[in-house]
Specification:
Strand content: 25-35%
CATH topology: Immunoglobulin-like
Oligomer: single chain
Order of helices and strands: HHHEEEEEEE
Structural class: alpha+beta
CATH architecture: Sandwich
Length: about 160
């Protein structure tokens, strides 16, 4: 079998519809590089707050319209299942532009970032994240009308899954 490019791999993993709505974007930037090369990365809730503030852009988040499902206790902190769905009615003139998930106490708090288009129809993602310890998970979704929706869930974890 020949090797495929990254977009082709995403299309295979997500299906044609998944590739059209956008896949998780890789972390980038000086902060990610700094933490990735640090031998003993530490939990950084200040970084989580910075990421959330940047995403919010001064807009106050709404506590309704976004649903975050997470287990109360992580059986395996190396692969905690999360399900995020925009419950706000979406239409051609109102869609979710972007959705992020933040694991507040992880050394790299931005767990994922998804971008959507008006053609997506619905904004729903399922993912697994690693947790270094018990923490709150925060999901934020930006709608095309400028509103930001927020949902939170606390996850208890006995042993960290980040290998630290």
């Amino acid at each position: 079998m020949t090797s495929s490019s990254e977009p082709d791999r995403r299309r295979i993993l997500l299906g044609a519809a998944g590739a059209a709505l956008g896949a998780a974007l890789p972390l980038s930037g000086a902060r990610a590089q700094e933490l990735a090369t640090t031998a003993e990365a530490q939990p950084d809730s200040a970084e989580a707050d910075r990421i959330a503030a940047e995403f919010l852009g001064g807009v106050a988040p709404q506590a309704s319209g976004l649903k975050l499902e997470a287990p109360e206790t992580a059986d395996n902190p190396a692969a905690v299942p999360l399900h995020v769905v925009v419950t706000e009615p979406l239409a051609e003139d109102l869609w979710c532009e972007e959705l992020i998930v933040i694991a507040e106490r992880n050394p790299l708090p931005l767990a994922c970032r998804y971008r959507f288009s008006a053609a997506t129809g619905a904004a729903e993602v399922a993912l697994r994240v690693r947790l270094i310890q018990s923490m709150e998970i925060r999901a934020l979704a930006r709608l095309s009308d400028g509103r930001v929706l927020e949902a939170r869930a606390a996850v208890e974890s006995g042993v960290g899954g980040c290998g630290m």
